[in-house]
Specification:
Two copies of one chain form a homodimer. Chain A is elongated. Helices cover 71% and strands 0% of the residues of chain A. The longest helix of chain A is centred in the middle third of the chain and has 23 residues. Chain A is an all-alpha fold. The first copy, chain A, has nine helices and no strands. At the A-B interface, α6, α7, α8 and α9 of A face α6, α7, α8 and α9 of B. The first copy, chain A, binds a DNA duplex through α3.
Amino acid sequence: MQNTPLSRESLLPPLAAHVLEHGLGGASLRPLAKAAGTSDRMLIYHFGNKETLISDLLEYIAGIYSAGLDAGMGTERAATRQEVLAKILAQGREPMMQPFMILWWEIVAGSARGLPGYKEAAGEMMERQLAWLETQMPVDDPDPMGGARYLLTLIEGTLMLGAVGHARTAREGLLASDLSGD
Amino acid sequence: MQNTPLSRESLLPPLAAHVLEHGLGGASLRPLAKAAGTSDRMLIYHFGNKETLISDLLEYIAGIYSAGLDAGMGTERAATRQEVLAKILAQGREPMMQPFMILWWEIVAGSARGLPGYKEAAGEMMERQLAWLETQMPVDDPDPMGGARYLLTLIEGTLMLGAVGHARTAREGLLASDLSGD
DNA sequence: AGCGATATGTAGCAGGTGCTACAAGGATAA
DNA sequence: TTATCCTTGTAGCACCTGCTACATATCGCT
């Protein structure tokens, strides 16, 4: 036995990578351990049980998502709500974000079903996205707080429709909104 | 061995009931079979394998969802888009719809991950909801088709935020939309 | 040097997983 | 009656599941 001892902190990054690639639902200890270069035995030792592991992992993933949001975009503001929306939807379509988007719906599902740790992680991510959205609102927006919430609702609806193959429906819907530049 | 032989059709209702209660993710053959009063052996016999079973089950669930939509609401039209939205969101909050709402996010997650059968079921449900929504649009709406798509996007975003404990965020967002009666 | 706490490897347990082999019941057709 | 097919029950297989018992190595402390 050698080198730096494992710890929750050192284990979480490879675990998160594995979950981002393969999902949460089918995640079981032995594949997770293999991805982290350890054994299931050690995962249980460091996290206590699987439930805690998943909770900690979700919290960690929420953290890197938030950090990615903060770092991901410059400070130039959009001029209209419509531009903000377009910018964010374009960002969500980036290939780099894809594993995240896919995982996101699993987190929502777990949250809806009340699985431990899921709602906290999902709520945190929403909060961060909302906060970030507020900073992106046009400077002359009459109601930046409310507008950010409105856009968030539209964004999530659009993403959901995209996830089930109805991206076009959402696109056509946005054209019929007050955002379409009428 | 006795009475009416089993068939896919006779098996699907109890299977759907079980899945609506316990979810799709952890659904395994033996509990499913028990819920249907049979053995895993017979489920495989009638459906071939688990994947086909789940696909057929999703299709069936999409069907009963559609039927529920058709039967669920009267024909009196709302006068404004806002009223349509409020009516639908109220319907979604009904306790009877809760198992459906919870299952829905699992279907979305499976659809996003590309699991077989999920996208078809999710797409079908969206299509039905959209069609139904179009019939509910105000008679004097300038763009019923686009408006229905716009409302669908808002609805799904609102439901998602609700699923992760941010119902309030969505509510405040809707107040900042053009629907708020300004 | 000795001791206790921490960290890890090896083996294994009881139970669950999808699925299959085999046999047999019952209905139907010849 | 006999043959055939459809349907079902009983056992079981190989594998995976989370988790644990036990032994052992390593490190800091006294």
